[in-house]
Amino acid sequence: MTNVAVVGAAGRMGKTLVAALHQTEGVKLTVAIDRPDSSLIGADAGELAGIGKVGVTLASDLSAHVADFDVVIDFSAPDYTLENVALCRENGKGIVIGTTGLTDAQKQTLKDAAETIPVVFAPNMGVGVNLVFKLLEMAARVLGDDVDIEVIEAHHRHKVDAPSGTALRMGEVVAETLGRDLKTCAVYGREGQTGARDRNTIGFATVRAGDIVGEHTVMFAAEGERVEITHKASSRMTFARGAVRAAGWLADKKHGLFDMQDVLGLR
Ligand SMILES: NC(=O)C1=CN([C@@H]2O[C@H](COP(=O)(O)OP(=O)(O)OC[C@H]3O[C@@H](n4cnc5c(N)ncnc54)[C@H](OP(=O)(O)O)[C@@H]3O)[C@@H](O)[C@H]2O)C=CC1
Ligand SMILES: O=C(O)C1=N[C@H](C(=O)O)C[C@H](O)C1
Question: Where is (S)-2,3,4,5-tetrahydrodipicolinate bound in this sequence (predicted)?
Answer without folding.
Answer: 156, 165-166
